[in-house]
Amino acid sequence: MQDEYREAIAHLATAVSIVTTRYDGKPVGMTASAVCSLSLEPVMVLVCIASRLPSHDAISQSGRFAINVLPEGSENLALNFARPSPDKFSGVRLLDDHEVPVLRDALAYFVCELHERIPGGDHSIFIGRVMRCERRGGGKPLLYFNRKFGRLDDPEEELLRALAHGL
Questions:
Q1: SS3 helix, strand, coil % of the chain, rounded to 5?
Q2: Cβ pair 117, 126 in contact under 8 A
């Protein structure tokens, strides 16, 4: 069943985000695709994180986290945060006015207080009450589909590009 599930779920296109927190005075982060809106009243989002990851315990202990939605072209950043590394934040530009790390180049971000953690198999569902959020720019999100990064195509944009090149 696990193999069939992996094949099927790979066809659910998702936006790629970096989930961050600060624990023991150090920034902690990971790449996530299991992120979604939960509620408008109160404003809440959720993220699912594998129990074995350092970010899982860091968020549980700190009680705060940020979800940073990555723009197109951020594949290297997503890969950097998806792999174990002693300093994932090296060279990453951050906004200065937050208790948790917020990526300066994020398409949008959500700074959250941990409202609840619910066990879910080998993951936990972290429900965050959004304390601050912002849309930062007019780009498109980096997508993940069928185990690859992708992008949203705009048919009108593609037509204009083709016309401009005489095709």
A1: 20, 45, 35
A2: yes
Residue with tokens 């906004």: 95
Are the C-beta atoms of residues 23 and 94 closer than 8 Å to each other? no
How many of the other CB atoms lie within 10 Å of CB of 92?
A: 19
Yes or no: say if 108 and 135 are a contact pair by the CB < 8 Å rule. Answer: yes
Taking the C-alpha atoms of residue 76 and residue 73, their distance in angstroms, rounded to an integer, is: 8
Question: How far, in whole angstroms, is CA 29 from its chain's centroid?
Answer: 10
CB 112 within 8 A of CB 62: no
Q: Which residues constitute the domain of residue 14?
A: 2-164
Q: How many residues does the chain have?
A: 167
What is the CATH number for 71? 2.30.110.10
- Which mean pLDDT values do the consecutive 10-residue runs of the chain (167 residues) have? 90 93 96 96 97 96 97 96 93 91 96 97 97 90 92 78 77
Closest among 56, 74, 52 to 19, alpha carbons compared = 56
What pTM value is reported for the model?
0.90
**What is the rounded CA–CA span in Å between residue 18 and residue 26?**
16
Name the domain count of the chain: 1
